[in-house]
Design brief:
Elements (H helix, E strand, L loop, with lengths): L6 H5 L3 E5 L5 H10 L6 E5 L20 E9 L3 H4 L2 H16 L19 E4 L3 E4 L2 E12 L5 E9 L24 H19 L5 H10 L7 E6 L2 E10 L5 E4 L5 E4 L3 E4 H5 L3
Helix pairs in contact: 4-5, 4-6
Length: about 270
């Protein structure tokens, strides 16, 4: 099966560029933006040679996994465009729910709340299954002429393989017993993106996105440790605020809103991270 867009996505003017292998779908999308592409372009591949995650970390994507980037061109506020990562997380979780049989995935996150969601969202940019990282999301931007900028919404999913020897648990759909392939997952993702992007509504619907995200949040109400520039802050994960910052209450009762950091749950949160 070849990559293709959902009919809803096509009707809304989205386009598709599919590759057998790429260096980085984010890099390719931003190159298209600098060359004048108007956006609403999905760049997808089943193999990515030089993908990257947050903070410059490598993102391994061997043959059969999904690397997908949506190019968004906007003249709005970059602060609001940054919340597209939450739209991406919701869209991917919705797509996974649609294509993975319900009997395949068990839910369980060490030290965190046990919800009914098979696929949970870990702030700010991960999708978890059975408490392990299944997918990552990376937003990158570039300034364009005329006061506009491009946002590459990168989504990487471990479909057939996941990296080993990581400091956190990781998994793949295949390891979880699911038989969904990258093409089927992308078809559902392109459909789910259209729905959640309409809800987001150029940032005007961020409050609704935030509510939906919290309903899928991993670790809500549980002990967390957040590494921020080499320092570790510990507390209880209470919510994300109206700007989608991570809000915790520390041992002294103080409430902290964190804009960027690496989050650890459960036993990992209790240990030195």
């Amino acid at each position: 099966m070849a990559f293709r867009l959902a009919p809803t996505s096509v009707s809304e003017g989205f386009r598709l560029e599919a590759h057998d292998s790429v260096g980085s779908t984010n890099t390719l999308a931003l190159d298209h933006a600098r060359a004048g592409d108007p956006g609403r372009l999905w760049v997808v591949s089943k193999r990515q040679e030089s993908g990257r995650g947050r903070r410059g970390r490598a993102w391994v994507s061997p043959e059969g996994n999904l690397a997908a980037t949506l190019l968004v061109i906007t003249g709005g506020e970059l602060r609001l465009a940054a919340t597209l990562g939450f739209v991406a997380g919701l869209s991917l979780a919705d797509a996974l729910d649609a294509v993975v049989p319900k009997s395949r995935i068990a839910v369980g996150l060490d030290g965190a709340s046990q919800g009914q969601n098979r696929f949970e969202l870990k702030w700010p940019n991960d999708v978890l299954a059975s408490g392990a990282k299944l997918a990552g999301i990376l937003l990158e931007s570039a300034i364009l002429e005329g006061g506009r900028f491009a946002v590459a919404v990168g989504i990487g999913v471990n479909v057939v393989a996941h990296p080993a020897e990581l400091p956190y648990p990781a998994t793949s759909l295949q390891a979880l017993g699911a038989t969904c392939d990258a093409e089927t997952l992308f078809l559902a993702l392109s459909d789910a993106w259209s729905e959640n992007a309409r809800l987001w509504d150029e940032g005007r619907g961020l409050a609704a996105v935030r509510r939906r995200w919290l309903a899928r949040a991993a670790g809500l109400g549980g002990e967390v440790a957040v590494r921020i520039d080499g320092n570790v802050v510990r507390g209880v994960f209470e919510t994300i605020d109206e700007d989608c910052r991570f809000v915790i209450r520390d041992g002294e009762g103080s409430v902290l809103a964190i804009a960027a950091g690496d989050v650890h749950f459960g036993a990992v949160a209790s240990a030195q991270v």
